[in-house]
Amino acid sequence: MSTYHLDSFTIGAFRGLENTTFERLGRFNLLIGGNNSGKTSVLEALQAFCNPESPVDWVRIANARNSNARVFPAYSLNDCLAWLFPHVKQAENGSPGSIHLSGIGACSIQQVEASIQSVFGMPDKEDLEYFARRMPGFNPETSGNVEGLEIKLDSVRLQGDSPAASASVTRRFWQDIPFVRGRGISSNAFPVAAVLGFEYRFAELYADSYSRLKADQQQEILNLAQMFDSGIVSVSVASKNRRPYLKIEHKDLGEVPLMVFGDGMKRVLFIATGLVTAKEGLLLLDEIESGIHAFVLPEIMKWLFRAAREYNIQIFATTHSLEAVDAVLLSAKETPDEFVTYRLAGEHIAKRLNFNLLTDLRVHGGLEIR
Prior knowledge:
Radius of gyration: 22 Å
Shape: globular
Strand order of the largest sheet: 2-1-4-5-6-7
CATH topology: Rossmann fold
Largest sheet: 6 strands, antiparallel
Number of helices: 10
Number of strands: 15
CATH class: Alpha Beta
Number of domains: 1
Distance between the termini: 33 Å
Helix content: 25-40%
Strand content: 25-35%
């Protein structure tokens, strides 16, 4: 019987990673390694693996590194989608290779394969009507063919006590057309939430995401936030100049907009939202220390460990920070068997370090283990 949602995870090919396996995963999995070692790519691969049929998730993953996408996108969505796929310089046709992902655990998804190709054709009727509403002057009758990308997705899932079943879907993304709809999301979606290291800097946009949550989810976020700061009385959405913003009522400060708080509070609220969204699933935290002062990191990690157990969440987190590593080690003392570290190095190796080994290397040996 599987202990976690994923007991092992293999990246056959995704971005620059290939033939990389993470064995004997824990509840809290910390990814360390040098720059460009593939830590963030692992999180992206996990997100793609959990909901392969969802075009929304593919768009989120693709745009995550396009840091100016919210204002002035440097690259088109299709450019970003194409670079999720492996690129081999020596490839004769110069086209990207296929994505191959597999996992073993309680999660029903066992295998995901994806291929990509350029297409030139006519969007379907629903897309054309949508384009016409979003783009003034767009005439569906005279639009002609549109350039785009086609992603073919093949997945293998367990169906309860039945044998594993395979499914195949095709998604098309049209060049220079904003993708904002959720059409085509699978009813088999596995809970997963990704919290990026820089998102808290866009705290003013958080109000929109928060307002879409159900009342019970908002209450859970409040409960989690109160675990971090017991002075928080309520969290709500307010409006100023017709623009929504998040408002916090605090015992000591009164009613305060989120922007007044420091980066730590903003980051905690983003993580709390991820915890609620990822209940019974996976929470992916990039740059876990981002926005949080080293002094409070141990409390944040203890908070994360408690919430992960309460919500049956498996966490995958990346870090460059020795302070974050030390804080996680301190928090993992109560349940050391639930914690695992993987150090990504060259030649697609993910070296597994359990709690005892990492403690010996870091605490007793004082080694630089990042």
